[in-house]
Amino acid sequence: MRLLVTGGSGFIGSNFIRHMLASREDVSIVNLDKLTYAGNPQNLADMAARHGGARYHFIKGDICDACLLDDILHGKAVDAVINFAAETHVDRSIADSAPFLTTNVMGTHALLEAARKARVERFVHISTDEVYGALGPTGTFTETTPLAPNSPYSASKAGADMLCRAYFKTHGMPVVVTRCSNNYGPYQFPEKLIPLMILKARAGEPLPVYGDGLHVRDWIHVLDHCRGVELALMKGEPGEVYNFGSDNEKANLEVVRTILAILGKSEDLIRFVADRPGHDRRYAMGYEKAQARLGFTPLIGFADGLRETVRWYEDNAAWLSAVQTGAYREFMDSWYGERK
Length: 340
Ligand code: NAD
Ligand code: TYD
Known about the structure:
7-stranded parallel sheet; two-stranded parallel sheet; 16% strand; binds nicotinamide-adenine-dinucleotide; binds thymidine-5'-diphosphate
């Protein structure tokens, strides 16, 4: 099976490519990635060395580039498209939303259109639980929960989901949408909560917790998400949406305290800072449909997964310092400077 994976040099995409190349010998992958600040060829250096030229091929490019997409998909070169490419950080979407609309909405449209013309047999679009908005203290999201996005990031993801739906309904395209809760694990860019807190704690710097720290996220290990995407690719029904979660709701403060405990650092490093505007209070994912119809079951418990993730960042200190470029520090200084 020949796959076009977009955004494969980011966090989840690189874990997915590594998982697929390791577990399925019949799979070959073209990775199309623009290499934005979040895309890093180092994330797949091992795969390029082992499978490069044969089962793995990298193309630097933009999912908004219709001509490039036509070239890649020409002549039924690809059996399925899996679209991970996106601008993904909620805080950046608050600071500057334009790239989110360009890549997440217009880019998904360009990819759908190119895949439609090339008659690609399967199109898996990777979405997020954030399209459902925020929950109160009880209940979970299901696939029929109305979309109510609250950030420019989640609004742009919801826009892409609606385009996927329209291409299925209008053109009969075999589109499957997956929505997953917050991921953690190796290769996550240190702007997201867990790697950022590991980085800060290791450096003995203050750990910025938004608001009262009682916002809840439903954490899933990235490999469980990747296994879910694989199931959606192989067994998902066209036109259907599948939620993935891990029954693992945690308040941010609890996650931060656990990271400090694993690293043997003091809770005095915690700093409560001004809240993120429009901050969703709670996410919790109901994934019974994926369980019943795809056979999805998360396998990695949070205690083990988080300990291993902390160890990965300790063992990969060179990766962690290389991604902290000047542009990274500039964004972080400006964003957190405003939250003091
Ligand atoms: P990430 O920011 O780590 O990686 C995104 C990748 O997309 C990068 O490699 C980047 O270079 C690439 N990219 C960005 N714009 C592009 C463009 N125009 N053309 C080609 N490539 C482009 O993101 P991630 O955390 O790996 O998320 C991957 C997908 O999963 C996203 O669609 C995101 O919305 C979704 N998702 C993420 C989470 C999470 O917790 N991280 C949870 C649910 C869903
Ligand atoms: P994040 O990793 O940005 O994911 P998302 O906003 O997509 O859920 O944030 C996870 C939670 O952690 C969210 O409630 C915001 C909070 N948070 C902080 O308290 N401090 C921080 O510095 C960051 C980046 C996030």
